[in-house]
Records
---
Amino acid sequence: MTRKAVVVLRVSTDEQHLGPAAQQADCERFAAHADLEIVATFMDIGVSGATPIDEREGFMQAMTSAPDLGAEVLLVQGRDRLARSISVAIAAEEALRSQGMVLLAADGSCGLETGDPDDPDAFMMKAIRDVFAQYERLTIKMRTKKALRVKKLRGERHCKDAPLGKMLDPNDPKRLVPNPVEEEAIQAARLLRGEKMSLRKISAELAQLGHFNRAGNQLTAEQVRRMVV
């Protein structure tokens, strides 16, 4: 008997190797052979695999829409598309189970494709996949941090916009040099903070001194906080 399924696609900012279109195509191929009817697709774009399920708009929409759509299956391209965190993967499966839904993966990595949720081998493989998914996420995170730290030590640009107090070197756009205007503002903000002023009061004082953010607006409390830490 054909079962109805909702598809959830996830792509984080660090993972570009398997985009939404490729994930959708894999899910459609799997559905055609698994006697599934895809009734809706939901997306979490720019969402980390460690993000809790209740903070994922696509996943939560899939969960709330499934009953009205008559869907009893949540289909993902791979188990790591669901989560790259052991605790998040467990939470997601528990949420699905409480709603009477089953989690399936187009690449067969969810362990229930055999049809037996109590299969001990399937359980072990799910656990192993979850561990390696989290390991890969942490490895990417650590590698990125190291690369950014090296760039910072070299004075190289390591983000889209130059950090506060810095600007791109006109002679070498890959390098950062001090921004004298912002450095003056930072020094003033720290002096004012030393006088026990609130962040909003400091922002107002800086505006009086002619210091604004890069958009030409009064500095926000968060921007001031970054200046005085």
---
Amino acid sequence: MSISRDRLSGNSGITLIEILIGMVISVVLMLALSMAVKTQSHSSKREINRVDMIHNLQNTAMRMRTELRMAGYQAGVTSDMHIGAITAANLNDITFVYDTNEDGNRETITIRPDKATDSGYDANHPRIVRLWSDGATVNMRPIGDNITGITLKYYDSSGIQLADSTVNSTSGTQANRDNIRKVALVINARSESKDPDSQAYLTDQLAFQVIPRNFK
């Protein structure tokens, strides 16, 4: 009777079933590792989107605050600079004047969401734009990208909110707009790209107030 050397030596080798079990375990481990990497990647992208959106929101607010604080300014004038300073006080846009180049003349500044007729308009990338005009020339530049909207409210020297109908460019009067002493703004922003999991844009908003430094 013959007995194999493997049996005599006690080395039976690795069976096919053991190989298959090992392969299954390897696949499971690889899938788990892949999911962990994917989750970490999505989390990183989401955080980058969120941080970029907040920075954009803060930068947009800073630019708007800087412009609005100058409303009414005119080189060589020291009083009554609020008179005729804000020429359109609407819910979603504002127009005001100030001496942007220190030549004694006040230019017109409009801050508003961009429109389909604006140069560089892209419905998928909403912006806030600044229009500058000296009466003969109009220049436009964006001051905030991925800004989905702005809301403005206006207050008098007593802190009382002025009714939209009394100050807007449709039914309001310049005399009522001359009573504006403070502007409260809310800026709404979204992320540059969609969240990799929800496939929706991240959103945030920032509220702040501006008191033009030349309004007494």
